[in-house]
Amino acid sequence: MAGSPGDDVRFASKRDAWLMVILWVTAVVLVGAGVCLLFVPGPVLPGILLAVLLLLAAVFVIWLPYTTAYTVTASMLEIRCGPFQSRVNLAGIEEITPSQSMLASPACSLDRLHVVCGGSGGARRDVLISPSDKAGFLAAVARRTPHLVVQGDRLVREEGAGA
């Protein structure tokens, strides 16, 4: 994870085994249901269409955890989860702390980091992520955010840094 502040660093999401089992079982059930629909008596076209939709849903369910990643660029934290993307301005990050929140988020593990950002007009924005290398992630963000310092397993605003 070494590099200068200008290097982009990508971190894959940590994936909890129990979640992966649930996702793979869901995908197998979706594919199985789609195959079964092909053998149901009646009009063929609706069965084929529904089977294709179920297959696409299975692919989507498996696609998400294998594409969930976080890229720290010179000025942004880019979050990708399947087709979904969001960006967080590094300068707006107020703190990053450990979390085990079960709230929906672009994270494939409950071993998470809670990123707190100041938004425009004073609005606060929170995002939960689960980089597999949390220490490397915190170090990469710290190299690009002079107002934050690593304190153990978290990034906090440096004493005396402007708000």
Describe it.
With 163 residues, this protein is an alpha+beta fold. It has one domain (1-155). The chain is 34% helix and 29% strand. The chain has 3 helices and 9 strands. It has helices at 17-37, 44-67, 134-144; strands spanning 9-12, 69-72, 76-81, 84-89, 93-99, 112-118, 124-129, 148-151, 154-157. The strands form 3 sheets. Strands 1-2-3-4 form a 4-stranded antiparallel beta sheet. A 3-stranded antiparallel beta sheet has the order 5-6-7, with no helix packed on it. A two-stranded antiparallel sheet has the order 8-9. The two termini are 29 Å apart. The mean pLDDT is 90.
Judged by helices, strands and strand pairing, the structural class is alpha+beta
Question: How large, in whole angstroms, is the Cα Rg?
Answer: 20 Å
How many structural units, i.e. domains? 1
Shape: elongated
Distance between the termini: 29 Å
Helix coverage percent: 25-40%
Percent in strands: 25-35%
Number of alpha- plus pi-helical segments: 3
Series of secondary-structure elements, N-terminal to C-terminal: EHHEEEEEEHEE
